[in-house]
Amino acid sequence: MHKVLESLKKRRSIRAFKPDPVPRETLRELMDAARWAPSWGNTQPWELVVMGGQTVKQLTADFVEAVAQKVPPNPDIPMPGTFPEQAQNRYLTVAKELFQLLGIAREDKTARQEHMLNMTRAFAAPHIIYVTFQRDFSIPYAMLDMGAMVHGLCLAAYALDLGTCIEAQLALYPDLIRKYLEIPATQKIVVGIALGYPDEKAKINEFRSSREPLDKLVRWVDC
Ligand SMILES: Cc1cc2nc3c(=O)[nH]c(=O)nc-3n(C[C@H](O)[C@H](O)[C@H](O)COP(=O)(O)O)c2cc1C
């Protein structure tokens, strides 16, 4: 199988990382590959911040504090409220299957809360990549461009033996992010991507989300 096809099928979200930082060279190689993503009229709306070290630890500790204090999130990109029914089922299924794998029961609120806090800490990844764009861009197409770039970045990370987890959770408190990263208010923060070397021994990294069967999603017309 061609390597691109293989990477598309084998990449998965990584939710436990080794503490080792990724060398600057490798980070550069990753970001250098990601910038070749397609975009509307080659406008390349993305602006990225790669963070590591103590800054990641301090920022995620602030996130955990905000969650503990029940500070209302105010993400630059609003969270989806509802989904169409089938998608809502997929959303519930992925959480159910992940908790099943981890042996966390439905009623075990403490373990579920701990998972949520772990997510808030970027799963202890040594790096977070913040994805932003200038607010003057027209949102629907800029977001399409962001998606293309983010997926490419995740595939490039996979090719470099790195793990990623795209996390809306890491974008819930833009004011805290701006405190550390000097991202101006004129930039919208889209998502944070947890990045590092996968902890291969962690149970959570065995998780594989499912996909709808091909023929449920694709109609074939005249071909
Ligand atoms: C925009 C976006 C936001 C996401 N936010 C989170 C998040 O906050 N926490 C998390 O654990 N996973 C998050 N994910 C990862 C999805 O849950 C994951 O991509 C999906 O379940 C498919 O699994 P896979 O990535 O392993 O193929 C996010 C993915 C996307 C594209």
Describe the structure.
By secondary structure, the chain is an alpha+beta fold. The protein has a single domain, classed as NADH Oxidase, CATH 3.40.109.10. The chain has eight helices and four strands. The protein has a four-stranded antiparallel sheet with strand order 1-2-4-3. Helix 2 crosses helix 6. The protein is globular and about 55 Å long. The two termini are 23 Å apart. The model has no long low-confidence stretch (mean pLDDT 97). Bound molecules: flavin mononucleotide. Flavin mononucleotide binds next to strand 3.
Number of domains: 1
- For the record, what CATH class applies? Alpha Beta
Helix share, percent: 40-55%
Identify the CATH homologous superfamily.
Answer: NADH Oxidase
- Cross-sheet strand order for the largest sheet: 1-2-4-3
H-E string = HHEHHHEHEHEH
Beta content comes to: 5-15%
End-to-end distance, in Å?
23 Å
Structural class by sheet pairing and helices: alpha+beta
Mean pLDDT: 97
Q: pLDDT below 50 for ≥5 consecutive residues: which ranges?
A: none
General shape: globular
Bound molecules: flavin mononucleotide
Question: How big is the Rg?
Answer: 18 Å
Number of helices: 8
The main pleated sheet reads as: 4 strands, antiparallel
* Topology, number of strands: 4
Report a brief summary of the structure.
Helix content is 44%, strand content 13%. It has helices at 3-10, 24-34, 53-68, 85-102, 109-120, 139-159, 174-181, 214-217, and strands at 46-51, 127-134, 163-167, 187-196. A 4-stranded antiparallel sheet has the order 1-2-4-3.
